[in-house]
Amino acid sequence: MRPEPPFGRRAAAMITPFTAGGALDLEGTARLAVHLVDRGGCDALVLNATTGESATTTDAEKDAVLRAVLEAVGDRASVIAGVGTSDTRHTVALARAAASAGAHGLLVVTPYYSRPTQEGIVRHLETVADATELPVMLYDIPARTGAGTELTADSLRRLAGHPRIRAVKDCAYDLLKSGLVIESTDLAYYSGCDELHLPLYALGATGYVSTVANVAGPQVRAVLDAVDAGDLATATLLHRRLLPLVDTMMTGVPGTVSVKALFAAAGMPGGPVRGPLLPAGEEFTGRLVEELKAVLAPAS
To answer: In whole numbers, what is the pLDDT of the chain averaged over residues?
Structure first.
């Protein structure tokens, strides 16, 4: 029993392509979005979030990325705009701008740095959800937002009562909490950690928001497809086969760096990362390429 997927089931946490000089590459953005939907096995795209370098793009750039992707893919995929900041007023403004641009939904991270109480976090998220008519996916990622900013099970249950708060992108690494909230609410859970897609799906999650899907979308999708077909053994094998690539891509450097290194090697839109991120070195890029080749090769 899974909630109906309010944002599709197979979302890529899409990078933001830049030119060689570091400017926004809107033509590359559109091409990448079409690739991820038409060939990458994705029925949803999450823009302007962690993998999309939201911390170093301007509000105007975020709006331009969203509009370019919406024009490129239309209604062939759910387009979810990351709008979360540490400032409630700024987040509301970004949410309204995304709604005006035509986004299909909003991703809202818990407010960071200020270390608000749980009551403050709940009120922040409810205020953003009240600001537009768009459905909202909460983003629970305490490793990035800081200690004390994780959403508690009680806060998630409260937020589930809001008519527009529909889902959670779960990067909390707390399967007990996730399972309890899935059991006691109608929130649709999306795994935000590639190594946990299968375990969280087994608990009743709806789908994933995947960084690895930028480069291996069909292979990531195949894990969930096997579960849906009732073939847990195959799903387990496919999930295990992805883990070395997940480990290499996500350990030691941010996933954005890994994706852009792989895209550069393949001639795909991506370009450089923006500081303070640093590009992948030649040796690390070589490891990434070999791990990806192993995943893409036909199973023996």
So the answer is: 97
